[in-house]
Amino acid sequence: MKTINDFNFENKKALIRVDFNVPLDEEFNVADATRIEAAKPTIIKVLEDGGSAVLMSHLGRPKGQKNPDLSLQHICNKVSDVIGVTVKFVPDCVGEVAEKAVAELQPGEILLLENLRFHAEEEKGDEAFAEQLSKLGDIYVNDAFGTAHRAHASTTIIARFFPDARCFGLLLAKEIEAIDKVMQTGEKPVLAILGGAKVSSKITIIENILDKVDHLIIGGGMTYTFIKAQGGQVGDSICEDDKMDLAMEILKQAKEKNVEVHIPVDVLAADDFANNANTQIVDVNKIPDGWQGLDAGPKTLEIFKEVILKSKTILWNGPIGVFEMESFAKGTIALGNYIDEATKGGAFSLVGGGDSVAAVKQFGFEDKVSYVSTGGGAMLESLEGKTLPGIAAIIG
Ligand code: AMP
């Protein structure tokens, strides 16, 4: 796996695909600079070598149209602040104006190109467009994990124009290593905690992960499909009746593969999907009609704690309760604390995919787990066992 550490960028122009798809507030200021900060080490390495950096990214979904609201010019000052170098901006990402700006770029300088998705060819993975982009640098660096599952011009197709000069940026390399640690090289026992709302959105992950883990914790809204499938009474809890056969099949496969599955035994049930609903702790198999399980119960948390503390590799995807409401966030917070404790004891913990990152950030667990993945969809597809096109294109 080639990373930027395998190259010397002295007098070279690095064409770096970053993920600067950041949220903007009403005045078009960057509301959260996490993704810019995440790209900093790669950019700094290029500059410190004596090279220059040409940054390309998408922002939002302009669908092939120029849309001033989604211009990357809005983020130029923020990138300058974060990197500590005044960033130049060019109002297109291909063509004469971009080529001229690149030609004038000196070592130590940074140039930000306009939104890639102002050109419909980007998302189509158009080869001629990728070739035009490829003229803007000597070495192609992909540091955008968030789009690594897309075969777009700037994330995948472009790599073929740099057969000997393409590599991963430091952020993307770290993502790949973290996922490998869970999926291939993790120390046993390996545990996956899968929460979230629905079985249907996690099914491919569950099937793939059964070959990699020793323990599987199933929590959150998914619980009730498993419980009902086994004859339990789930009241008004979220449940996918058409996925009950699948749930039984998963349990059967887990048994065959010697994976221990842990499902909640008690839940915090509510008489409404609301923060101020009446609540009670009930047996997961006996949730009365009119009540729905919205968080894990105390006995469940004790069981989960024990499993987490004996695991050496932990993957966490999805909250185990409706954490957006304070009344039903306790289980997810407790889980985060157990993972923190396990991590302090030497376990490797990876959090990623969809809402678990939001939960981790909201409750301040970011610095307590070993790694928080930045790519929602890309992370999920990796866990499903798919080869991401953006990664395959670099490896060749
Ligand atoms: P996902 O994006 O699949 O990880 O799902 C995350 C969502 O699952 C969050 O918005 C949670 O509120 C929701 N969730 C977790 N537990 C439950 C539950 N018991 N009932 C309904 N929704 C839940």
Pick out its properties.
alpha/beta; 16% strand; 15 strands; 396 residues; Rossmann fold; binds adenosine monophosphate
How do the helices and strands line up, and which of them pair or pack?
Layout: E1 13-17, H1 34-49, E2 52-56, H2 76-83, E3 87-90, H3 96-103, E4 110-113, H4 120-124, H5 127-134, E5 139-142, E6 166-168, H6 170-183, E7 190-194, H7 203-209, E8 215-218, H8 223-229, H9 244-256, E9 260-262, E10 266-270, E11 279-283, E12 292-296, H10 298-309, E13 313-317, H11 330-344, E14 348-351, H12 355-362, E15 371-372, H13 376-383, H14 389-395
Parallel strand pairs: 1-2, 1-5, 2-4, 3-4, 5-6, 7-8, 7-13, 8-9, 13-14, 14-15
Antiparallel strand pairs: 10-11, 10-12
Helix pairs in contact: 1-2, 8-9, 10-11
Q: Specify the CATH homologous superfamily of the largest domain.
A: Phosphoglycerate kinase, N-terminal domain
The CATH architecture designation of the largest domain is 3-Layer(aba) Sandwich
Number of domains: 2
Order of helices and strands: EHEHEHEHHEEHEHEHHEEEEHEHEHEHH
DSSP E strands, number: 15
Strand order of the largest sheet: 3-4-2-1-5-6
Span of the ends, CA to CA: 10 Å
Largest sheet: 6 strands, parallel
Number of helices: 14
CATH topology of the largest domain: Rossmann fold
